[in-house]
Amino acid sequence: xxxxxxxxxxxxxxxxxxxxxxxxxxDSISGLxxxxxxxxxxxxxxxxxxxxxxxxxxxxxxxxxxxxxFIFCVSSMVIHVVPLAVAIDAMRVIYQPIxxxxxxxxxxxxxxxxxxxxxxxxxxxxxxxxxxxxxxxFQIDTSRWxxxxxxxxxxxxxxxxxxxxxxxxxxxxxxIPRILMHKQKRWIYSGIAVILFIALLFTLSRGAWIAxxxxxxxxxxxCNKKWLLSIPIAxxxxxxxxxxxxxxxxxxxxxxxxxxxxxEYGRIAFWKEALERMIDNPLFGVxxxxxxxxxxxxxxxxxxxxxxxxxxxxxxxxxxxxLLAFVVFVFSLFWLPHRSAKQANNSFTKSLYIGLASVxxxxxxxxxxxxxxxxxxxxxxxxxxxxxIFGLKWQEYQSRKEKISK
Length: 406
Fold this sequence. Notes:
Layout: H1 2-12, H2 14-24, H3 27-30, H4 33-49, H5 60-79, H6 84-99, H7 101-105, H8 111-137, H9 161-181, H10 186-202, H11 206-223, H12 230-241, H13 244-251, H14 256-265, H15 267-280, H16 294-298, H17 310-318, H18 320-343, H19 347-366, H20 376-405
């Protein structure tokens, strides 16, 4: 059991280890470390938890769309005879991060352990964000991100500004409900949240900003609706306090020339191409890994491109029904903690469930303008956080069994 807990601390340090190993070793070596970590998790769980079938607490409305999504992925590969190397790589990118959720699923029934996990995860995220702020303020070019535009974007120890923005959003989604509903360590966590928010701004990721706003609206609605009155005030004040570079980034959205350029060769053009593939191949798409984003580009698939919309990319690759299954699966990962928050009998559990639901909001929204799920660290942390939902449901399931037995 101690081994499992130590693996949980490795999970907290995942962004740091991934950065260091990829910085020190070539990709052929450093790319294997996460597979070895996952292998250690599976072996440890088999040794210590093999008699606990925690999947009984996963509702059918989560299982069924997930299985359908998997079936359409496999079917698209078989029907279109996707090359084996591409198929393996694509399935690894999609499903490997999901398996990291097993660790938190089997350990998050311990309240004290869970509190320590979040405490150190917030501190780690705060340090990553602080480095991002320093990077932006002093315009330190770490060479981890090629700046194609004139504006400098902070990436901290990540390699992509959109990915690190998603990471900040997930941490903020867990922190804000806790700050609003708990006095314990409120000032410490408020300080970390401010650092994370500033670092989020410095990523210049507009999709992440929109996701953050939607998450905050949800959290306030669930925690204290009176705080909604502060939103108009914040909207009026922010333009006068935000840095010029951030204002410029926002104002581009109101520039017709931006949409014209995007329609010719940019995000909108990519979306149109994905829609055309989906319309031409509505049942099984063009095959997993054969159209958009990291996998087909890595394997030099002809006409591959960045889609910058995870949903359209999925629809183009596995078809309309596969996309619907995926959307329902993602919604179920929001609905389960959302419904549980309404049924929670104490403020700690309620704030935790609200945070867990909020994480799906920020990731689901940001994936409209980028394939954030394909970023390894983002995918690992997202599904690790999802695993906590089922760990909590297992705890509730055990409590009900004990009451019945008495």
